[in-house]
Amino acid sequence: MVWLTAERKVLRLADRRCAAEGEMTEPTQINNQTGRPATDERIRLAHGGGGVLMNRLIVEHLLPVLDNEFLRSLGDGAVLPPAEGNPVLTIDAFVVQPLEFPGGDIGRLAVCGTVNDLAMMGARPVALALAMVLEEGLPIAVLDRVTASISSAAQEAEVCVVTGDTKVIDPAGRGSPGMFVTTAGLGICPEGLRLGPERISPGDRVLINGPIAEHGLAVMSAREGLQFETQLSSDAAPLAGLVQRLLRCGPAVKFLRDPTRGGLAGVLADIAEQTGLTVEIQEPAIPISRATRHAAEMLGLDPLNVANEGKFVAVVAAEAAEEALAICRGHPYGREAAIIGTVTSARPAVVELLTAAGGRRIVQRPYGEELPRIC
Amino acid sequence: MVWLTAERKVLRLADRRCAAEGEMTEPTQINNQTGRPATDERIRLAHGGGGVLMNRLIVEHLLPVLDNEFLRSLGDGAVLPPAEGNPVLTIDAFVVQPLEFPGGDIGRLAVCGTVNDLAMMGARPVALALAMVLEEGLPIAVLDRVTASISSAAQEAEVCVVTGDTKVIDPAGRGSPGMFVTTAGLGICPEGLRLGPERISPGDRVLINGPIAEHGLAVMSAREGLQFETQLSSDAAPLAGLVQRLLRCGPAVKFLRDPTRGGLAGVLADIAEQTGLTVEIQEPAIPISRATRHAAEMLGLDPLNVANEGKFVAVVAAEAAEEALAICRGHPYGREAAIIGTVTSARPAVVELLTAAGGRRIVQRPYGEELPRIC
Fold first, then answer.
1. Which of A34, B13, B55, B109 has the most CB atoms around its CB within 10 Å?
2. Min distance B32 CA to chain A CA atoms (Å)
3. A174 CA to chain B: closest CA distance, Å?
């Protein structure tokens, strides 16, 4: 019982301190990234308690950054305008470590991951819901940066965070206090739109919108403290805008999948398995940066197995392949798009890599993931 | 690099062990609660890796229990049938400890919490999305029980888990390995349905569907290992069915809110604050069990501030109050419903408790929550 009373005392003291801080006439420092007063405050259990401190966290730190008419009502959910078409629902939990890495952070990752799941199903993102589990001791400055990142990624994807939930847990014994972010996405796809492996047939072309393996390697090198001559950067990007343009090619676009966990190899293995057809890939056609290739060699990883967070694999009818490629190359997230292979009826159904030297090798589905907690 | 190789080895060994287990002709023991073979297996990091082990976890443990046509496709999301009305989106993260408590577990809690958020907005639940973050070392038997509980609560609420995501994190140093569950809910509410504090006016009646404070006290006593003469049990229940019936009263139902964190006092304070009206509550009319009152006294808590997970507060026009009460009492989750008070124009706007002895006291908004991690 004592600690209950103790907690109440802490709460009251904390409240007085916050009140005192609020009385300062001018904030002394502004955080350049968030444009908000710098603070060395940290998350406390009471920030998740549903009381005054939690209200302050929401009103002062989350609402101003994520603001929109739906979120502002602070209801238990958001009532959205009616929309024609099929609703599409998706959810992803993100546990990446470190929380911030070159090219992104857990917030950008969460928004992009969820928007991309919707995009791969041909859906236009309509709304995001955001749940954050914060560990006690997390610097509020980190939370502010992640929230700002969520906001900017959502803006880029033309979608809002319409509802949310925040919980605080006692800190783990596993290093600096962290956070977990879960995002659910609601999208709308036009009735009658069909994308799926069952639509793939021999002769179809396989397209990717840019260089592979950048997210996984950026996170791994940040976590391991590895330095490479060129800075690796995550490719995390919301792809819904590009995909909506691509879908103007009509039914020639047959299948879309984002090569996240399991990498490009995982998606190609899925295609071969689910269609019973062979996927023939021209190795030299696969876009990959020198820096990525170098880092993968250093780490002993096959870039085909490494996670991406801003890439999609599209299977497109042969006659529309050049048009699809041109659409991709005309978009910031598709500048380095390439047609990397062809679906054939060769048996047995495998993923076959044709090397520059004229050799052939079978690409296996990754057994497990290369490293945990990259998303 | 060494630990990477080591992890691969663990994976292969684990895989062999699982294969060997699969070869047994008869499972030796059946878990009574889940109807599945008992296992002493535990979650490993590789269960979250996107590889073979993860696939097995999903196909053997999650799919059979949660099965439905949407989930079965194992896509990145679920394409749902078009529906008329306003889509309603909600999300909740659950971090309750212990994971299992009298009357429920984190799974039942997650489904009920999300279904009830939708119900409070007048929405019929259409689909749930489920994200689970598992700590390495979590017994798979616990996961099986939680999953079974999610399934049965969802069935009761006439809704399916249509899509999901699973991640595994390294265990915290904070006791036995746990899990966090985040559920997002999609509902549909009829166009034109308006529920909200702005519709409340003097003379309206305040109704609650049953006895208060049971969830919070059940979790707290389970966590603290407290024994009471009568076993306390969480009230966690999906309320959408009851609320849909209640809404047949039409526009006489003006406001609905579930008194979770912050309890009944929190919701009544919200009403007074948001309407500028006084809420007069007859203390003897508030349903509360003897066991709950006793436990709250022992713990030094005000039951008005303690969380509920199967209750709603409804504000109803006076002329429809008896009809609303009768509807509630005719439903399993409303048998002990009561009209507990009246909205008045008395100034200043407060929540006033009229005691059995004829006294009056002002009910304050709870400052913080009584104890963390009750949901």
1. B109
2. 31
3. 6
